[in-house]
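ugh finaly. both done.
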Amino acid sequence: MNALDALTRGQSARDCTQAPEADPEVRFQTRRGTVEVFSSARQLPPGLRAIAFAGQTRDLRYYEIADQSLAGQFEHHYLVLHGAGPDETAVQPVFLVDQDILEGLPRRLHVLLSWPRRFFPRWFQLRMLVAGCPAGTGALDCSEPWAVEALCEALGIYAKQVKAAVILLKDFSAASRPGFGPFESAGYRRVPSMPGCTLELNFASFEDYMRDQLGRSLRYKYIKLNKRTPIEWEVRTDVTPLADEIHALYKQTHARSKMRFEFLTPEFFALIGREMPERARFFLWRVDGRLAAFALCLVQGDTIHHLNIGFDYAVSLDRQLYFVTMRDIFRWSLRQGLKRYVTGQLNYDPKLHFKMRLAPLDLYSRHTSPLLNPFFKAALGYLQPVRHDPIIRQFPNAAEL
């Protein structure tokens, strides 16, 4: 079944939000109030669905798309936090995953630490309760003190109920640090996650940017690219008919990644354009009439968020498609009056040459066993992948990590 058939035969995410309200699967108390747990975003009260994560780039629709399209990879749940006041209600998506915490380490270190798996197959593979999104950065629906304190306590209680060994808050912006004191007081350790990158689009044209900010080698690359036959490209919102072709390119790029967490599906690419049409933008490049590269972006306010990319490596290296895609995205963004470009994790070498700055992201984690947590926190300092990436340390704001 291809992506189009799947969407035709099943309900879309928007249709699913019309499902009748369901009773929570679990309900328990914290010092701040009641917590209800739902297994799907579509089961949340309609009024809450309408306002959860409102105004954020990844609103509740994005979490629901990930929930629906990544089924089988993660076990999704939604915590609804109720405080003492009538307006004190917040939603926090969470998911359960069995995670190899050695993933992303240099090969030699991985081999050194993983050899006991010959005798203990689940060595350094832990069941985790993760707060955040499996397909992107994390965020809080409500960052008021009552909600942060309630979430901190709720995660501890719920982790024991689902028998999770580790609790993790995944990829939260460094801007959240001032409000996350309750987590550090509760025994969590903050370590840097692989950061995103950002660039202020404070130039009038790509040519100005190329002349004034790029180094000689990258300028020369673009001078040569600009002399070659232009590559056909377009921007779309709904790519349902192309979802399988896009996914084939995504698979090629995903297979080359040194770190893997989620694996997106054709349904993800189809749904995000259908359910978030005012934000989703797919950039598509064709070589000799065939789709050769794509980029998925979300536009929110004056910022373009570059989420995913994929290439046909049979032509990508010869045609320098990575650099072509960056040039064309920047040109399009300038024409739309956008002011800021934000991109995701990994592939830091070209981003350094594009004069981007790091956008720090944090992980907060602790072991559910008070006896093991001190050892776990100490190990996090060595297991964090950022520690082993020399390129990251070359960025001018690396100290912010």
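ok and the 2nd:
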Amino acid sequence: MLDIKYIRENPDKVKKGIEAKNEKNRIDEVLQLDEERREIIVQVEKLKAIKNSVSSQIPKMKKAGEDTTAVLAEMKEVSNQINGFDTKLRDIEDKLNDMLMLIPNLPHESVPVGKNAEENVVVREWLPEGFSLESDKKFLDHVELGKKLNILDFERGAKISGSGFPVYMAKGATLERALINFMLDFHLNEHSYTEVLPPFLVNRESMKGTGQLPKMAEDMYYIEKDDLYPIPTAEVPITNLHRKEILNENDLPKSYVGYSACFRREAGSYGKEAKGFLRVHQFNKVEMVKLVKPETSYDELENIVSDAEDILKALKIPYRIVLLCTGDLSFSASKCYDIETWSPAENKWLEASSCSNFEDFQARRASIKFRRESQKKPEFVHTLNGSGLATSRLMVSLLENYQTTKGTIEVPEVLRKYTGFSIID
């Protein structure tokens, strides 16, 4: 959520940022409501000042034997006016808050301006030693490999739940579990994160806190009877660990990593490629979340990207880093890098991670603050998150890049102590 004071003082800058994100510009309506709200507050304060002044005189009038009937009637009318204004003020504030919840975060000045993903900027590319994107080798795609080796079953997943719900079988299930455990251990031991195993169902306030609600309600699964949401990412419960808390300066940064299953309806994705893991409704992900002081947040963004890169380097999977333009940024992000891994069968890069800085946008919604030792007034923290990584697209690249001419899969060396085997055949 944006600060209403900032919107009031920088309306043109805010409008420009919203339009750069291809979002609806509601700023004039917001400013009109804000003006009405402030006018009512002024009127209420004047009436309360009159009431307080007159009320202090009534005991003196009574003591002097003066008739207070007219004054009491007048004060009753003033009280009625105050109550009426208070009711109107609550309605305006509720409407203003609802509108503020629909205004996106503003892009950082370092984000390139662009309309869509076509205008994203490739920052760097990493290939394992001796690897080339150009190859005459015939590659089976991950769906063909999964069926041939009996490690993935998309058909039975569709029978059980519907399309987009994969089943991992035999060594495929073991490989998935190994990948998750490896990534968690790596972030714990090499990057000093604190592990969290969060709930997979969260309440409405948690979804509002990280920006999924109300903007993206159609993309979320919802359990109406319990008013709970299956999480789209562990970012939601982990960020909300400190909702409505004031942290000490020395508590920061908070660096968390956690595994979760993720659930997404993807209501707006119809018509997009949906083969195998390319678009699923349930997938696994290891998520990194940071709560930091504002002055360090953009350095921490680079650190999160680097932490995710270390995973791919250890797995020896080719990847590239892409800086998203304004038109491709998410609703809540100020700046975001995508990490894409190479699929030789698809002959294209696949998004396997997004690493974002939300500045104080989520913290303002979730009321997550910290207090500096030198100041009494608390400030909002900056929040960041990054996939470290999502296994579905990563599994596509792993299976396809590690297939042999015999049609088997070599297990990456760093995963073998987790799998107990080196070949899937």
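summary for the 2nd one i guess: Residues 4-100 form a domain with the Helix Hairpins fold (CATH 1.10.287.40).
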